[in-house]
Amino acid sequence: MLIDESMLAEFRGEDGLCRLKPEYGGPRKYSDYPKLLAELVESAKRPNLMRDGSLKTVFTWDYFEELSERVDHGVVAMLAFTNLVPVLPITRNWMAFQHQGAGYACRQITFIGTVLEPKPAIKSAFFEIARANYCACRGWFEGPETDATITEKYIATVQELGMVCGIRARSELCESVYPVEANPVSMGICFDDVGDLTYLTEDEHVNPLILFLSSNSD
What we know:
Layout: H1 5-8, E1 18-19, H2 33-45, H3 49-52, E2 58-59, H4 60-63, E3 76-81, E4 84-85, E5 95-101, E6 107-116, H5 120-133, H6 148-160, H7 167-170, E7 177-181, H8 184-190, E8 209-213
Parallel strand pairs: 2-5
Antiparallel strand pairs: 1-4, 3-6, 3-8, 5-6, 7-8
């Protein structure tokens, strides 16, 4: 379904951001438990759509023929917010999607995004990435820690294209989900005519991603 500000406004926190899911902070040592507990308590006080809202998601394979079982290795690109969502410009159509990746591990990724058409060379590059990693690790490419060789090769390919797959992007990497950091440089490399979206990628706290999605082996 299409998302507009009227659906998100009541879930915005004091910082003006809408949260799709609770924020639990980073990894902690056992000695940091009191700090982690305090973070969890504060997180529970913030509204988030997954817990408090009736966010209706669209399954990507139902929406895009390129991602259906009938068409292998198609690629769809999006500017996506996987957790923090700013006020979205009305110049684009925004939708809440759910995508199944990670092969047989069936990892479900929920995000709010807008579909963008990649430049031909970029689309071709990620087409090859998707084809090479289809059923990778015999269908068990669950994430960046599954196979160091696959991850390193992906990061190197992204760097050759002039972009970055940093910590935030790596956390979403798995079979059929190929992320890069969204910033003005990467947006210019990947797409034409995205001037109305550039400012969204300049907020390091929101930290959106460019997601290249393909069909999953399961």
